[in-house]
Amino acid sequence: MLEIKNITFGYNSHNKIIDGLNLEFNEGGIYGLLGKNGTGKSTLLYLIMGLLQPQAGSVTMDGVNTTDRNPEIMKDMFIVPEEYDLPSISLKSYINSLKPFYPNFDEQTMNECLQMFDMPTDINLGSLSMGMKKKVYMCVALATHTKLLLMDEPTNGLDIPSKSQFRKVVARGIREDQIIIISTHQVRDVELLLDHVTIIDDQKVLFNDRLNVEEPVNLEELFLKALENNK
Fold it and tell me: Is 80:150 a contact under the CB 8 Å cutoff?
């Protein structure tokens, strides 16, 4: 279980982006973290990973504080940031450099995901476009088989066919005991994937509930309604 307790964070003393936030994420689900630009979605993901230090509160994964960056916990956590670059090396060399840190890494999962994206496996990462790099990195992320997987705006830069492929890749690659958190404001790209939705705005949680698969919800309408009710 991922627990966020009374987290407060600001990039300066006069502007708190997150203030006293409390959330729980249980195993076996795909969570959508929704909010307008600038509401702290990316910041929250970095706090979860221990890449930022909270000014108050705590983030724990299975009872261990993630801000300590303990290798025993880090091997079960992975993040796909919104912006990143990959080294100009072969995919094989890149995977060999990652494997020591992620003991559950499965090349078969990666190759299956790449195939679903219509991507070859014998590629040099430096020769890829940004959209292609994003596809490769998401396949690598799913292949780590970490218990916690965070994705920040994963569909940005993908064309329409690739967004459809993305949904299939994630649905195919998730483990039963995994927690996947997808931070986005592109709600239509992910609404068919999600088991649970959390909406944040104005430093607080506006909505936090499981979705009923038997009664499909229009996430865009839900999102706009939550923002309107917060005015």
Answer: yes
Distance of alpha carbon 145 from alpha carbon 156, whole angstroms = 23
How confident is the model over 42-70, as pLDDT tens digits? 999 999 999 999 999 999 999 999 988 88
Q: Tokens at residue 225, please? A: 């309604």
Average pLDDT over the chain, rounded to whole? Answer: 88
Return the bridge partners of 67, or none: none
Per residue, the 3-state secondary structure of the chain, as one string, reads: CEEEEEEEEEEECCEEEEEEEEEEECCCEEEEEECCCCCCHHHHHHHHCCCCCCCEEEEEECCEEHHHCCHHHHCCEEEECCCCCCCCCEHHHHHHHHCCCCCCCCHHHHHHHHHHCCCCCCCEHHHCCHHHHHHHHHHHHHHCCCCEEEEECCCCCCCHHHHHHHHHHHHHHCCCCCEEEEEECCHHHHCCCCCEEEEEECCEEEEEEECCCCCCCCHHHHHHHHHHHCC
Whether 159 contacts 168, CB under 8 Å: no
pLDDT recorded at residue 214 = 67
Percent of the chain at pLDDT exceeding 70: 97
In angstroms, what CA-CA distances link 99 with 70, 79, 96? Answer: 17, 15, 5
d(C-alpha 47, C-alpha 157), whole Å:
25
Q: Which residue, among 72, 53, 54, has the nearest Cα to 63 in the 3D structure?
A: 72
Q: Are 9 and 30 in contact (CB under 8 A)?
A: no
